[in-house]
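in:
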């Protein structure tokens, strides 16, 4: 049934392609938010290119504009409205199509705001109707009609949407959609719907094809990857073991697991693996048991710490990264110190820090004990300071060691240098020839510079 829907869209792709014949039309896409959104954008790009649109990075010359939005925090939303202002100025002068989709569009109050204050937007589409982009574009072109194509139900899992990958050595593969956790601060379950897992066959086939094309690294994506359910008892650990067997894939990453679902079979699979990255992203959110309870995270400070301890014991060379929210409603000084304490104890390799942002429709938004902005910012800076001191400390441990590095390209700041990442996601800068791009090589680390490490090629290979 779902396949039928994609076949229909392929017909629309052909029709739009016919309309666009010989026109050399260009599209500009702006992607906000997480890796799941980036992967969705790759699918939109795949469809657009089959419709004969060519990508441009120059906003001024496009014929079709797509914004793939995020609503996880307020600042992401503000950016979209700024962009729409810029697009209005272009549309006043030229006949362009503006399409806006993604998570923000699933919010009723945003749909109304766009209709009222940004009536020049041609297409509004949601997270569950991404696959219908060809049809939406066709109707806009043919009938010059404004489209609102947003479903308020859980979407299905669609296979076979064309995709244009943005990297040629590292690829993202969405393994599940949606989230069932309803952390009280978070909008994602409302805009992405309930959990739906892809079948193991479809996922493995996609990764096998990537491996054949020369991809060396895959990142398995989902809001809660370790609650992946492939059916008939096939769980996330089974998937990890099957991806491990695919020849050509050298590095496997996944984001994000939930601490409450980090079962022993997953730890065993990582321990037995030669390919799974030794940097595990395990979102903490808060180190205070009280706050975690109100957040609906379903673990305590002690349970988080003992999970980390257990993993470190089983896999000694493991490192951790995390997400932390400061200033959640009701967070006391004592609660915040618990967060600092966990950060100190775990010694995270990387911390993604966020100031709590009120999201319309979530339980935490309605809580009365909101934290004043000033306190939130002070706490944020204290956590940042702890983290930055840890970076210096951690970096020093790398000096003199030899690291396996996936070479990503030339350095943005210095064209003579190459850049890549270690298994623990450290940025490495070193001298080498461009032929090494896409290769996995050994680098000896010689110095540290906070946000990157400098190294040298160990053996020309
Ligand atoms: N499903 C993933 C990530 C969800 S969104 C997980 O559970 O880890 C990415 C991060 O944004 C979250 O981990 C959280 O730290 C942060 N976040 C989510 N809602 C937020 C809010 N309302 N304010 C501030 N940060 C938020
Ligand atoms: Fe949001 Fe929690 Fe789901 Fe992550 S697990 S997407 S933080 S509700
Ligand atoms: Fe943002 Fe949607 Fe991802 S809200 S963080 S883009 S799932």
């Amino acid at each position: 049934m779902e396949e039928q829907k994609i076949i229909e869209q392929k017909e629309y792709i052909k029709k739009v392609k016919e309309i666009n014949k010989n026109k050399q039309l260009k599209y500009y896409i702006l992607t906000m938010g997480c890796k799941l959104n980036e992967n969705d954008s790759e699918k939109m790009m795949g469809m657009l290119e089959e419709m004969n649109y060519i990508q441009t990075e120059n906003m001024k010359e496009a014929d079709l504009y797509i914004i793939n939005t995020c609503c996880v925090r307020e600042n992401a939303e503000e950016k979209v409205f700024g962009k729409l202002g810029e697009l209005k100025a272009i549309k006043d002068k030229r006949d362009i199509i503006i399409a806006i989709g993604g998570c923000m569009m699933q919010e009723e109050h945003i749909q109304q705001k766009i209709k009222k204050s940004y009536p020049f937007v041609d297409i509004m589409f949601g997270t569950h109707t991404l696959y219908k982009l060809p049809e939406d574009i066709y109707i806009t072109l043919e009938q010059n009609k404004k489209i609102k194509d947003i479903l308020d139900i859980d979407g299905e899992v669609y296979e076979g949407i064309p995709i244009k990958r943005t990297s040629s050595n590292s690829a993202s593969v969405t393994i599940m959609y949606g989230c069932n956790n309803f952390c009280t601060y978070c909008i994602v379950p409302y805009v992405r719907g309930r959990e739906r897992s892809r079948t193991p066959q479809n996922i493995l086939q996609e990764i096998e094809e990537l491996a054949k094309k020369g991809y060396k690294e895959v990142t398995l994506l989902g809001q809660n990857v370790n609650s992946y359910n492939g059916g008939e008892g096939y769980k996330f650990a089974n998937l990890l073991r099957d991806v491990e067997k695919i020849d050509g894939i050298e590095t496997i990453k996944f984001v994000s697991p939930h601490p409450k679902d980090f079962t022993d079979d997953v730890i065993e699979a990582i321990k037995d693996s030669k390919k799974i990255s030794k940097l595990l992203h395990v979102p903490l959110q808060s180190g205070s048991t009280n706050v975690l309870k109100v957040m609906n995270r379903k673990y305590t400070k002690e349970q988080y710490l003992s999970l980390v301890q257990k993993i470190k014991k089983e896999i000694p060379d493991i490192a951790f990264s995390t997400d932390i929210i400061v200033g959640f409603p009701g967070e006391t000084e004592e609660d915040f110190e618990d967060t600092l304490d966990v950060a100190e104890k775990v010694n995270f390799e990387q911390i993604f820090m966020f100031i709590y942002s009120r999201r319309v429709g979530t339980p935490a938004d309605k809580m009365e004990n909101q934290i004043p902005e000033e306190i939130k910012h002070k706490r944020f800076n204290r956590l940042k300071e702890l983290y930055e001191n840890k970076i210096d400390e951690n970096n020093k441990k790398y000096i003199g060691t030899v690291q396996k590095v996936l070479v990503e390209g030339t350095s943005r700041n210095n064209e003579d240098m190459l850049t890549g990442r270690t298994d623990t996601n450290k940025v490495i800068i070193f001298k080498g020839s461009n032929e090494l791009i896409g290769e996995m090589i050994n680098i000896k680390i010689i110095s540290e510079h906070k946000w990157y490490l400098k190294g040298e090629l160990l053996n020309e290979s």
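note: The mean pLDDT is 94.
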